[in-house]
Design brief:
Distance between the termini: 36 Å
Number of helices: 3
Shape: elongated
CATH architecture: Beta Barrel
Strand content: over 45%
CATH topology: Porin
Structural class: mainly beta
Number of strands: 16
């Protein structure tokens, strides 16, 4: 599925390359836009409860986009890349871990106390290509809409914490760190906005970035002894509403 997504994006880009070059020869060159904005988690990605909850919080994003005019007035091939960062609700993860670190046998268990909890952020890098239509509605003011497909690269947040548990007169201290590999998935984007004075760009972009699957691992160190837990798989559906502003040049 991932290879088909990348292939589709490349096919669209190369199929439309001929008309783009033709426009350049007529003196109608491409334009580029640098973006910044708010990354607002949607759906499961932003939920704070349930088995599919991503616990993502409002974050920030930056992006770069190129528009390449076609023969049809107002129509262009548009390609973009964004770097989106969303923090994670630490309290919810810490609460979920309570009761997970218990030791003992024969029905007698001692649960560890968790402190110094630290969690990273989600990082999404969508790379997309598609079509954009832009029309001038009044002098110095225009509106646009677009649709794109492509792939997303996702990095899950790393989390780590210290733990302590006491059994009888003995107390043990340790730490745990969980990390994830990067994952990829097929995604699409739709949106629109306005251009003011041919330079200022403002709009909304909805990104549905699939459900990447990644491998994770946990390493634990207790009282000087360290070990690595079994590898596991994690997946998370990702959808984001990006409120952006940019400068076209």
């Amino acid at each position: 599925m991932r290879s088909k997504a990348v292939g589709l994006a490349l096919l669209v880009a190369f199929t439309l390359a001929g008309p783009v070059v033709a426009q350049d020869e007529m003196g109608m060159g491409p334009s580029f836009t640098l973006y910044g904005g708010l990354s607002l988690p949607q759906g499961d990605f932003g939920d704070d409860s349930g088995s599919d909850a991503g616990l993502a919080k409002t974050g920030l994003g930056i992006g770069f986009e190129g528009d390449f005019p076609l023969n049809s007035p107002g129509l262009s091939v548009t390609g973009s890349i964004f770097f989106l960062m969303n923090g994670v609700d630490e309290d919810e993860i810490e609460d979920a871990l309570e009761g997970e670190w218990c030791f003992g046998e024969y029905g007698e268990y001692v649960c560890a106390e968790i402190d110094n909890f630290d969690v990273g952020s989600y990082y999404n890098v969508p790379i997309l290509v598609g079509l954009k239509y832009e029309a001038e509605t009044s002098p110095g003011f225009s509106m646009f809409g677009f649709g794109q497909v492509g792939m997303n690269i996702l990095k899950f947040p790393k989390y780590e914490f210290d733990l302590e548990y006491c059994e009888y007169s003995n107390c043990f201290r340790g730490s745990s760190e969980t990390t994830f590999d990067m994952g990829t998935s097929f995604g699409f984007s739709i949106g629109g906005g306005i251009v003011v004075g041919q330079k200022g760009v403002f709009g909304l972009r909805y990104l549905s970035l699939g459900e990447p699957e990644v491998d994770g691992e946990t390493e634990v160190s207790i009282s000087g002894y360290s070990g690595r837990g079994e590898d596991f798989e994690a997946e998370q559906s990702v959808s984001i509403l990006l409120l952006f502003a940019g400068v076209r040049f």
